[in-house]
Design brief:
The protein is of the alpha/beta class. It contains eleven helices and 14 strands. A ten-stranded mixed sheet has the order 5-4-1-8-9-10-11-12-13-14, sandwiched between helices. It has a four-stranded mixed sheet with strand order 3-2-6-7.
Length: 326
């Protein structure tokens, strides 16, 4: 196992045009986990899953994609639910039902112990709903322990303010998690919600990077592409050279981050640890990382729901639809 992920796995109840709800497997960390495995990365999912029908479906999907479950035995708690509406552009809004659910039945010690059993672990990732302040006692000590152990820590802000009753506490906890990160992923919307200073998204991202100890920050800009920033002042901005036919954007950010992480872990075939993964980037390496991430997201938005692409699909997309940088 090269990567361990921790966070929500749930069922998206997606509103259809006729008013019915279509249940789909989802959750930001669940999507990310599947996307990593589909891109050939040995991935360990740390949270427990329910013994109910939805929990069994989530577990089966992860296993079929090659993910290893740290908690193979299901738990009695129910599966988390999210009601998802889509606007005219395919952009989702969410309402979550997450009290006493299976994926939140974790402790800092259980997360740490699961990672200790994986000697080849190079990277860990969390974010989204796991950054709720009421779960801070579980995830923040785990993140600090992983960084101290030498793993690369990736945090995806992926804010969900509509379901956080105390927005100030939520922001404080997100910033606390980012202080343990080596790699930060944010969207332009996340930066606005965090109240990050700056006249535009790139300036806000630069400010956020300086406010943490992270080495890399990736910024998604919706249809305008994405940026990669480094602590030493390098930056790249990329978008695909052809327009996309967007079906919906569910899971786009998750697939983007999975593509970036997969490219980081495989940018040198000889990479064997955190030092190699975070080695300084030259211009060609920065472009390759960002192009792989953008292609991963593009393939996702052209499909209904979150259907993560394989590594071969992403590589083909990079070659067929090159990015424009600048």
């Amino acid at each position: 196992m090269r990567v361990a992920t921790a966070g929500e796995a749930l069922i998206d109840l997606i509103v259809q045009r006729d008013g019915r709800y279509e249940p789909c497997l989802g959750g930001a960390v669940f999507n990310l986990t599947r996307a990593l495995a589909r891109q050939g990365i040995g991935t360990l999912y740390l949270n427990p899953l329910s013994s109910d029908r939805f929990g069994r479906q989530l577990a089966a999907a992860l296993v079929s994609d090659g993910v290893q479950l740290a908690r193979a035995q299901p738990v009695a708690q129910s599966t988390s639910l999210a009601v998802v509406g889509l606007d005219d552009t395919g952009h989702p809004d969410y309402a979550f039902y997450r009290q006493g659910v299976a994926d939140r039945a974790v402790t800092a010690q259980s997360l740490i112990q699961s990672c200790q059993r994986e000697p080849a672990l190079a990277m860990v990732c969390t974010g989204a709903l796991a950054l709720a302040p009421e779960d801070a006692a579980h995830y923040l000590p785990w993140l600090r322990a992983q960084r101290e152990a030498g793993a690369v820590v990736v945090v995806d802000a992926n804010l969900r303010p509509s379901v956080m009753p105390d927005l100030d506490a939520y922001r404080r906890n997100v910033h606390a998690a980012l202080q343990s990160a080596d790699v930060v992923k944010v969207s332009d919307e996340d930066l606005t919600i965090l109240g990050t200073p700056g006249g535009h998204a790139l300036a806000q991202a630069q400010h956020l990077l300086k406010a943490t100890t992270a080495r890399l920050l990736v910024l998604t800009l919706g249809g305008q592409g994405a940026c990669l920033l480094t602590r030493d002042g390098q930056s790249w901005r990329a978008r695909e050279s052809q327009p996309l036919e967007v079906v919906d954007t569910v899971g786009a950010g998750d697939c983007f981050l999975a593509g970036f992480m997969a490219a980081l872990l495989t940018r040198e075939e000889s990479a064997s640890g955190a030092g190699d993964v975070l080695a300084p980037l030259d211009d060609a390496a920065g472009r390759r990382l960002l192009a792989h991430a953008v292609a991963s997201a593009s393939l996702c938005v052209m499909r209904r729901g979150c259907v993560p692409p394989t590594r071969a699909e992403v590589q083909a997309r990079v070659e067929q639809v090159p990015c424009v940088f600048g």
